[in-house]
Design a protein that fits this description.
34% helix; alpha+beta; 9-stranded antiparallel beta sheet; 8 helices
Length: 225
C-alpha cells in the first residue's frame, strides 16, 4: 500500500474551480466521512472562516453543499464544525475507486491544500493522474505504508449518527433538555441503555476528533498553554 500527498499552493487554488475555498476559509481540515459512495460524499469538516464568511458561502459553488452545521464558533473555539456534501469530480473519482481512501487530517491552511490519499499503487496512479489533469498540483510526494497502517475513517457508524440526529432534533442537547432519556428511547425505538450507549460513544468520538485532534491538525498551541 502507498500514501501520497498532493499539494496545491493557495495561489494556484485561487485560479481554478476550488478557489472558493480560499475566499471563505483561513483554515479547514477533513476529519472523516459520514457517507462515502460513488455518488455521495459527506465529509466532517472543521473550518475557521474569514471575517464575514460562513460555511454556507460554499453553496455558491456547484461542487459543494453544506448539509448540516454541527457547531458554530464560540469564544473558546473560533471554528465551525459542519457536514459538507462534496461533488467535485476528483473527490467523486476517489470514492469510485476501490482500495483507496482520503486520510483524516488532510487540510487547507496558510500554505495551501494538502490532500493525502492511501491505497493500492494502481488506485493511487488513477487519482494522481486525474489530479494533474484537473488541478495541476504544485507537488506530489509518496511514501510506502504497511497494510496495518490503514484504518477506516468513518467517525461514527450510520446507526449512531441516526440516534445523534434524532436526539439533537428532539432537544436532548438544549439547555434545559426538552426530552428525557426514556422519551427519546421510545421515539427511536430502542432501549434506554442502548440509546445512552450510542450517545456516549458518539459524543466521545466526536470530542476526540473535534477537540483533541484539532490543535494537531492545525498546528495550533493547545489551549491553556
Amino acid at each position: 500500500m502507498r500514501e501520497v500527498t498532493i499539494f496545491w499552493k493557495r495561489e494556484r487554488l485561487a485560479l481554478n474551480q476550488v478557489g472558493i475555498v480560499t475566499e471563505i476559509f483561513e483554515k479547514c481540515v477533513f476529519l472523516g466521512y459520514l457517507e462515502r459512495t460513488p455518488t455521495v460524499v459527506l465529509a466532517f469538516i472543521r473550518g475557521i472562516c474569514k471575517p464575514g464568511k460562513t460555511p454556507f458561502d460554499m453553496d455558491e459553488s456547484d461542487d459543494y453543499e453544506v448539509t448540516e452545521i454541527m457547531s458554530e464558533p464560540t469564544e473558546l473555539d473560533p471554528a465551525w464544525m459542519f457536514v459538507l456534501n462534496i461533488k467535485h469530480p476528483l473527490t467523486l473519482l476517489s470514492a469510485k475507486i476501490g482500495k483507496l481512501t482520503v486520510k483524516p487530517g488532510s487540510c487547507f491552511n496558510d500554505e495551501g491544500l494538502f490532500y493525502t490519499i492511501r491505497g493500492s499503487p494502481l488506485s493511487i496512479k488513477v487519482v494522481t493522474t486525474a489530479a494533474r489533469m484537473m488541478l495541476k498540483p504544485d507537488r506530489i510526494s509518496a511514501t510506502t505504508i504497511s497494510q496495518s497502517d490503514i484504518q477506516g475513517n468513518q467517525i461514527i457508524s450510520d446507526k449512531r449518527m441516526e440516534v445523534l440526529k434524532i436526539a439533537y432534533s428532539e432537544g436532548w442537547y438544549n439547555t434545559p433538555r426538552e426530552i428525557t432519556l426514556g422519551e427519546l428511547a421510545n421515539k427511536i425505538g430502542l432501549g434506554r441503555s442502548t440509546v445512552s450507549e450510542h450517545l456516549i460513544k458518539s459524543e466521545s468520538k466526536i470530542i476526540q476528533y473535534f477537540l483533541e485532534g484539532d490543535p494537531t491538525f492545525f498546528g495550533e498551541e493547545p489551549k491553556g498553554k
